[in-house]
């Protein structure tokens, strides 16, 4: 991949000028001026309808942004992404989560061997899952497993947890719990809910060194040994890891260790054996459908022209707002309770990937990179933080995601849910002018003085950008496609921002210091820190009792 500082491109200069001319852009009027606006900014890919027309841009903006992608050599970068090139340069690794969902007959020669390895590990996982689900693999005393505890954190937790939650309608007889936080109360609340005799524990850790995961796994293993027996640990504890040695040391039997590959980053790993808890919770056929959906998006991202490419155009919008409008954040609002964990999952996927301030040449960056990601399901979020989006002082581009068909037959509910979904993007764009407010108030029983006083507070500025992602139905396949869409958006942003999206050195320092403080707490040596931390440690220690 070429290292190109985006701010040195001709398109960047053009965009800077263009932005100045667009400062007074009137979104509502733009639909009047351009009757083809919806077509110009909507991309349809089978069951995905992505409408970007309610954004602060013209067709010229789109052209220059797409030109920026070309100038940053995105097309070549996409080729490298689907090859064996070690584009995760700072960790000397390939980035091949797409190989996990590529059918062997569709794999190019460069990735064939990776796809073969992925298939072998998937087959091992599917065989294991099917044995658990059909009852042929049983607990230490011959009972069927009915519960799974996934022990992991970050990418070894968020992806599986989000997908398992999202596909609740597909759950089978095996119930999955997730333990991630090193907070002992998290473990305690989980063990209250489970029967150790019929529970399978999956320790998911690529490195098998993560403090939280090993602490939780040890606590659960010790509890299990006490409640059931130490001899049964081998039958009830399995591992997903690339560190086989450490997993064996922990007490997992060699044949129960499912490999993870170096060429798959934690936050992109739910498609691999990391998704074991998903496969156990929804079955292997549904897990395969999840992979198929992701592959569909992989093909679209690889083959579609940049102008008609969903992840590319979404990424360019992010860059447009982040770097030219100086928007700090992006909000994700799924209109389905099933996707309640999507914002948390995307926080790691996006912020751990693109929260970087050193470019691919190792130099400090003097432009903005990754933005803040937040969100919650609609309609609940309308009653929580929408006030700030509608009338606050910040520009917050929003993704509205919904599904045309609901899972269950409550037409009245679904119609109301969708009415809210459509109404919000309309309201954010149209706003409400002072004239409209006055007209409304005149119809009220308020006195003229009261009307005058109230009027400014009821004005909605409008002109707030939203992208609408309308998908036919939430299924394992469409969910896979949606997640892959965001993965490729992350990649595109990283290429254009000239950063390495696949490392996460920024999380190391906190880990090292936590270990040091843990030792200090044990030995009660509080003085080797800054005054604030020393005082806090002493205060904490004094309260332990
Ligand atoms: O938070 C840093 C991180 O390395 C993530 O990237 C990763 O998903 C998580 O920790 C867990 O790591 P592991 O799977 O090695 O336990």
Automatic annotation (TrEMBL):
One cellular component term from this protein's GO annotations in UniProt: cytosol
Chief site of localization: cytoplasm
Pfam families: PGI (PF00342)
Signal sequence, renumbered to the chain: none
Keywords: Cytoplasm, Gluconeogenesis, Glycolysis, Isomerase
Record SUPFAM superfamilies: SIS domain
EC class (word): isomerase
Known pathway: Carbohydrate biosynthesis; gluconeogenesis; Carbohydrate degradation; glycolysis; D-glyceraldehyde 3-phosphate and glycerone phosphate from D-glucose: step 2/4
Compartments reported by the entry: Cytoplasm
Domain of life the protein comes from: Bacteria
EC number annotated for this UniProt entry: 5.3.1.9
GO MF, one annotated term: glucose-6-phosphate isomerase activity
The family this protein is said to belong to: Belongs to the GPI family.
Name of the protein this chain belongs to: Glucose-6-phosphate isomerase
Organism (species): Nonlabens agnitus
Gene behind the chain: pgi
